[in-house]
Amino acid sequence: MHVENRWNARLYDSKLDFVSRFGKGVLEWLQPQPGETILDLGCGTGDLCAEMAKAGAVPTGMDLSAEMIDTARSKYPALRFFVANAETFVTEELFDAVFSNAALHWMKRPEAVIRQVWLALKPGGRFVAEFGGAGNVERVVQAIRTVLADKGRDADSCNPWYFPGIGAYTWLLEQQGFVVKLAQHFERPTELPDGEQGLRHWLDAFCGPFFADMPPQEKDETCAMIAERLRPALFRDGSWVLDYCRIRVAAIKPPEQRPLP
Ligand code: BEZ
């Protein structure tokens, strides 16, 4: 069963703004330059597009969620945003760079995304991205799997995430023709805001497909059971600290070769 996660832009901005705060690290790999055009795949509510614009670049934000794009437009009316699916989008404009933070792990057809990124780039353009890598939130996935299995539900059949190893992902990029310049797979324990409530907010924002069709009271009980399983390992000094692992990559679409004279 494939169920899309439903995004709530207000929850995203008020309780999960660490997603774009952490994204500033991968912007350092992108190094946006004045005047260059950059497509941000999975731009959410647009905060990283705003950072690119501050650096003088000309960002365009794209997201599958119309609610996220509406919020991005009202926060940053001077910037361009559009709704599209990264696995199928088509642009006539070619970009100097394509960027993505915390979005590619929601796209389960990575070959299709990589092909569309390639088509959207100018020759010589770069692709810089960060997303969840193998092992990301593994303890959380295990806890969800166990608690759902006790209720006769199969978590793996509705898992919405793609968390590849670094070798698998860079291989896909190379198969498309990209030259991978930098790739890193690292642990980034992530402290959630709001103390005890932090995990519940995170489950509400990111884990919708696991709880699809569950009556509200059963969802409350399920979330409480997941929290109790995770507490010994992930609740420290009054906060939930999740076991995030990230992949960061920078790759180039090679410039067109001029024929030798
Ligand atoms: C994230 O967006 O960073 C994320 C989403 C799902 C699971 C883990 C991390």
Automatic annotation (TrEMBL):
Keyword Methyltransferase set for record: yes
Alphabetized UniProt keyword annotations: Methyltransferase, Transferase
Molecular functions (GO terms): S-adenosylmethionine-dependent methyltransferase activity
Gene Ontology biological-process entries: methylation
Gene3D superfamilies: Vaccinia Virus protein VP39
InterPro entries, A to Z: Methyltransf_11, SAM-dependent_MTases_sf
Record-annotated Methyltransferase type domain positions: 39-128
Superkingdom per UniProt: Bacteria
Full protein name: Methyltransferase type 11
Organism: Brevibacillus aydinogluensis
